[in-house]
Amino acid sequence: MNLTALAAEATSESPGGLAGWAIGLMEALGGPGAGLAIAAENIFPPLPSEVILPLAGFTASQGDMSLVGALIWTTIGSLVGAIVLYYIGAMLGRERTIAIAKRLPLVKIQDIEKTEAWFLKHGVKAVFFGRMIPIFRSFISIPAGVEKMSMPTFILFTTLGSAIWNTIFVVAGYQLGENWHVVDEYAGVFSRAVVIIVLLALVTFVTLRILKNRRLKAQGIDPAAEENDPERTQIITADDSTQQIQRYRDN
């Protein structure tokens, strides 16, 4: 069955770009093609799963593969892509990650330690729920690799989170059939909302950090010196979250 022609009929134009590429893979390879497309989406976040997954459901609705097959292959693809990013994080390592983060403007060692401590405490939940949040879907695998999260744990919760996300979009595409593209329209609103929230959080962080640095300078204190103050370092070292990091390293 010519999926390209059916998709063109549904959208009133021949699908090109990502949609055309994904359709081509699924026409040629069936379920494995859907898995390959999703694996690529995980490694290259600009490729939106909100387009590929409904297309996989649409393909299943046309009989080119089963619905169960579409769910299994897309989840396998999600897992493969996540594992690739996990190992990228593992190869990058903690020391390199800290060295890179320290070069970022307005980022302090305390920020890195707090983020690391948070992930060590909530990493499992972050991996599970992160698989269902646009943008974070891919990137959440990198800190898991940096912190050397147990591979069985990572695989389990990545698979569960991916399966839930994939099922929602694949089944929606399957039920809508030739109107699969409607899913992308609604998902796009959600994705844009996430982007706006992230940008607002970033702007808030930068603004507060700039104001704090100005306040310190007005008091005659060098922000960089304040960060490396021995008393402040001692307080941070005594913090439960930092002790958790040290215990984690020792084990």
TrEMBL record:
Cleavable signal peptide: none
Key words, A-Z: Cell membrane, Membrane, Transmembrane, Transmembrane helix
Source species of the chain: Actinoalloteichus hymeniacidonis
VTT domain: residues covered: 47-175
Protein name (Swiss-Prot/TrEMBL): VTT domain-containing protein
Coiled coil residues, start to end: none
Chain segments annotated as transmembrane: 67-88, 154-177, 189-211
Subcellular location: Cell membrane
Family affiliation: Belongs to the DedA family.
